[in-house]
Amino acid sequence: MKVGIITHVNCPCGHRGSIVERIYDDGQSHWYRATLEGLSDTGHYQGADRLFADNTPACEACGRSLSPEDVDSSEFMTRQIRKHAEV
Q: What is the number of H-type helices and E-type strands within the chain?
């Protein structure tokens, strides 16, 4: 089964980008990949959120490092539920 998860991130400067996760598992093979869309990988987040720590997103417009606090508020609860499921 292939699953895609999109996390929209809003920079205070007004720019918006996404972290796109793709997960594949068919019982015999599995893989995971996360890519940044509209964001660069020059951020410096070092907190506990693995999605942000592994991808270090930054705003392409102003260069600001982005963190979980910048996740679109409409998606915040979904990320919290998923975060607790990983523990």
A: 2, 5
